[in-house]
């Protein structure tokens, strides 16, 4: 292995000593080792599952499931349902509670975060107590609390609490009148959607006009007209085609109407209040990160407190807020898997619960579930990163 | 979630390690080496498997584990009970976390085949029933139309419920919980009109409610639930050990061998009893056990009838009649092959 001076070419080192080549070689070696480990683990698992005669593969997907789920957003029942269908039922329930939870916790979190910075002593202390209590109690306990707090005081269906507009509340959930669309009913939905789109178009036009000419337009009034008055007009013009099926007592439970399950409410309230506690702190951090000079400058320009917050502080605070906000959204989605404890049929409860148990295919079912959560998280991150790019400081 | 993933990882790693078949029972070797039997039990069901204030487990299912431990170690206390929920139990057994699962598990075809498990007999013949509040004023499951029904997920109960209501064309709402405790709590809080599980479980859970006298069990039994101990595929000798430990308890009752008279029976001239207590023949050897394995079981745990009466029968709060669980010679279904 000795190297004579003749072998060393002046000015050019041997490939063996080229740091770049060496780097690649090490990378390749590491990749090969990792690849081999994964491959051998997978092939061993498959081989031994076969040796123990445990079914493997994804053939179970189309097998009949034979169990029922109470809350389902797509048609599903035990007689025609498959494990694959049950997967979608669970996934949609997860997405439902996560998406509504994200929206609500954002509003609540911003509200509490701003309240904690309020100069009003009581308001800021209440916000502080909320944040400290919520953040320091395990979420699972909070879910148990909400589930029992929602359930226990409510009466049975025969003594339902009657709320205005045909709403009924009992320990089986909240019953909402079910709208039935007669002929022409679709027009109302279209009118509403058109009103919504038109409002957005008008708003961006009005803003451009204001930026160019300084003239202000009554955006709020126009929005009210387009979103509320227009569909109402269509409703009367088409001869009031929407009727409601009201929930009524039939046997043990109420029949008719849309049932909002207590498990869903408890999970939603638990996730929302818990995540809002964290978001509040993120918002507070974001606002405090904006230098006080900005507020003073805005005041010097004659802006009142409201516009100062809305136009000067928040836009700058958002740059600090968005990245940790994203991780809170991801946490909320992942925490929704605690639904299993209170009987809400989310993905984990239905799929890694009942389906895993019936099929016994732990490896496949858990792998699918992990892939699903990974996908949801990555998609959420993607959208938040796009939003973050738009909000980020534009360097000139 | 964490638990399941953990169990799955163990499953993968156990599957990776367990290569090559040994001639003798690898599970028995492992248990002997460890010095203690790992037994998957329920999360607390009176009469079948529940710890007392000192942490001592008792129950029908617990006795099966104690019988196996007695046969191996001549010591019924050398068992570690690992509480498993209905939905986690099979993963734990498959992955080798427990040597034996004995927790009111129904023997079905798919569990026996596709899940890679073997059932080692039936220690309790059960059927699924329903519990309701007396003030509902109903006397039949068929009158539960539109009712909310609480059940535990990952059980045959969940499937039978769907089958029964579907075939009788009755609408219902299922509320499924991961643990038995949560299920009972939800029923008690009024979330559900009815609670369904195996009939024996209903009697046991009814006693845990704050006012048991306000609740009743409906007469219908909607399914067959043969409950028994379960082991993994692939270790036939271990299956034999568990199976024959249970059979020994049933045979002991038939032969009239009890905890109290087991020592006297060592002097018996009856060839059947001599084979049982190991004074004749070498029946323990092929299983890797001592020849007085069956004697040890009866000495420490008692026979099947004793176990039944002590845990769920007249000696317990449950007061369940023998019914289908009487010996075959007394009109029941309990029948064990002979030891010879």
From TrEMBL, chain A:
Top-level lineage group: Bacteria
GO biological process terms, semicolon-separated: amino acid transport
Subcellular location: Cell inner membrane; Cell membrane
Annotated InterPro entries: AA_ABC_transptr_permease_3TM (IPR010065), ArtM/GltK/GlnP/TcyL/YhdX-like (IPR043429), MetI-like (IPR000515), MetI-like_sf (IPR035906)
Record-annotated ABC transmembrane type-1 domain positions: 91-384
Membrane topology: Multi-pass membrane protein
Annotated keywords: Amino-acid transport, Cell membrane, Membrane, Transmembrane, Transmembrane helix, Transport
Chief localization: membrane
GO cellular component: ATP-binding cassette (ABC) transporter complex
GO MF annotation terms: transmembrane transporter activity
Transmembrane segments: 21-42, 86-115, 187-205, 217-237, 365-387
Family affiliation: Belongs to the binding-protein-dependent transport system permease family. HisMQ subfamily.
PANTHER family for the chain: AMINO-ACID ABC TRANSPORTER PERMEASE PROTEIN YHDX-RELATED, MEMBRANE COMPONENT OF AMINO ACID ABC TRANSPORTER
Protein name (Swiss-Prot/TrEMBL): Amino acid ABC transporter membrane protein 1, PAAT family
Natural source organism: Bosea lupini
UniProtKB/TrEMBL annotation, chain B:
One GO biological process term: amino acid transport
Signal sequence bounds: 1-23
Gene3D superfamilies in the record: Periplasmic binding protein-like II (3.40.190.10)
Alphabetical list of InterPro entries matching this protein: Bact_solute-bind_prot3, Solute-binding_3/MltF_N
Keyword Signal: yes
Span of domain Solute-binding protein family 3/N-terminal: 36-265
Protein name stated in the entry: General L-amino acid transport system substrate-binding protein
Organism expressing this protein natively: Bosea lupini
Source superkingdom: Bacteria
């Amino acid at each position: 292995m000795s190297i004579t001076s003749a072998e060393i070419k002046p000015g050019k080192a041997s490939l063996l000593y080229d740091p770049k080549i060496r780097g690649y070689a090490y990378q390749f070696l590491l990749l090969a080792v990792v690849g081999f480990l994964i491959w051998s683990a997978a092939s061993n698992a498959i081989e031994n599952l076969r040796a123990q005669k445990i079914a493997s593969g994804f053939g179970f997907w189309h097998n009949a499931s034979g169990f029922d789920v109470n809350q389902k957003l797509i048609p599903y029942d035990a007689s025609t349902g498959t494990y694959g269908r049950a997967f979608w039922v669970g996934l949609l329930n997860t997405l439902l509670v996560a998406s509504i939870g994200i929206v609500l916790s954002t509003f609540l979190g911003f509200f509490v975060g701003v309240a904690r910075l309020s100069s009003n002593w009581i308001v800021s202390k209440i916000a502080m107590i909320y944040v400290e209590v919520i953040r320091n109690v395990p979420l699972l306990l909070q879910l148990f609390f909400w589930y029992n707090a929602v359930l226990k005081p409510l009466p049975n269906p025969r003594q339902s609490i009657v709320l205005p507009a045909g709403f009924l509340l009992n320990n089986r959930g909240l019953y909402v009148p079910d709208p039935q669309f007669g002929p022409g009913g679709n027009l109302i939905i279209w009118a509403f959607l058109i009103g919504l789109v038109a409002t957005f178009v008008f708003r961006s036009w009005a803003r451009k006009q204001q930026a160019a000419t300084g003239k202000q337009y009554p955006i709020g009034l126009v929005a009210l007209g387009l979103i509320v008055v227009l569909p109402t007009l269509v409703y009367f013009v088409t001869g009031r085609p929407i009727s409601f099926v009201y929930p009524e007592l039939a046997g043990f439970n109420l029949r008719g109407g849309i049932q909002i399950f207590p498990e869903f409410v408890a999970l939603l309230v638990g996730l929302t209040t818990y995540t809002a506690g964290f978001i509040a702190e993120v918002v507070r951090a974001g606002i405090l990160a904006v230098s006080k000079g900005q507020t003073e400058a805005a005041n010097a320009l004659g802006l009142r407190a409201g516009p100062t917050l809305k136009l000067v502080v928040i836009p700058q605070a958002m740059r600090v807020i968005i990245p940790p906000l994203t991780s809170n959204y991801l946490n909320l989605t992942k925490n929704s898997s605690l639904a299993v404890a209170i009987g809400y049929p989310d993905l984990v409860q239905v799929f890694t619960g009942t389906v895993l148990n019936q099929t016994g295919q732990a490896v496949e079912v858990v792998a699918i579930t992990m892939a699903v959560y990974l996908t949801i998280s990555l998609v959420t991150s993607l959208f938040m990163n796009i939003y973050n790019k738009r909000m980020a400081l534009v360097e000139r | 979630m964490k638990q399941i993933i953990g169990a799955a990882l163990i499953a993968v790693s156990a599957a990776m390690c367990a290569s090559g078949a040994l001639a003798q029972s690898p599970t028995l070797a492992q248990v002997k080496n460890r010095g203690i039997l790992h037994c998957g039990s329920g999360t607390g069901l009176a009469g079948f498997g529940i710890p007392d204030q000192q942490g001592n487990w008792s129950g029908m299912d617990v006795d099966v584990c104690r019988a196996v431990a007695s046969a191996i170690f001549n010591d019924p206390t050398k068992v570690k009970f690992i509480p498993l929920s209905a939905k986690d139990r099979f993963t734990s057994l498959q992955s080798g976390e427990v040597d034996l699962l004995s927790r009111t598990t129904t023997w079905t075809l798919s569990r026996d085949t596709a899940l890679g498990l073997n059932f080692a007999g039936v220690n309790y013949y059960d059927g699924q029933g329903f519990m309701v509040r007396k003030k509902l004023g109903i006397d039949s499951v068929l009158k539960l139309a539109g009712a909310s029904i609480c059940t535990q997920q990952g059980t045959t109960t969940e499937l039978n419920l769907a089958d029964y209501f579907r075939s009788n064309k009755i609408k219902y709402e299922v509320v499924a919980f991961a643990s038995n405790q949560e299920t009972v709590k939800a029923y008690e809080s009024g979330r559900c009109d009815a609670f369904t599980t195996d009939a024996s479980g209903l009697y046991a859970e009814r006693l845990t409610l704050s006012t048991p006298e306000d609740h009743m069990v409906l007469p219908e039994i909607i399914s067959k639930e043969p409950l028994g101990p379960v082991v993994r595929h692939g270790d036939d000798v271990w299956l034999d050990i568990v199976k024959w430990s249970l059979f020994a308890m049933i045979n002991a009752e038939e032969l009239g061998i009890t905890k109290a008279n087991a020592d006297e029976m060592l002097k018996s001239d009856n060839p059947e009893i001599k084979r049982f207590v190991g004074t004749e023949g070498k029946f323990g050897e092929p299983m890797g056990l001592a020849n007085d394995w069956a004697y040890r079981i009866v000495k420490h745990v008692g026979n099947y009838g004793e176990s039944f009466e002590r845990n769920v029968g007249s000696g317990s709060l449950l007061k369940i009649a023998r019914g289908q669980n009487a010996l075959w010679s007394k009109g029941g279904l309990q029948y064990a092959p002979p030891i010879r």
